[in-house]
Fold this protein.
Amino acid sequence: MFRVIRSGKRKTKQWKRMVTKATFVDPGFRRKPPKYERFIRPSRLRFTKAHVTHPEL
């Protein structure tokens, strides 16, 4: 689900995570500035509509 991204000038900070699966985002979703963003969601994996096929839900 997540992949560790090494960021920072010295490449030692490993607190960022990149999402590797498609995720639902709110239509009013706004990104934080890249410096403060802990979970990076690539734009091609962002979906505003969820296709739910589970009959009990």
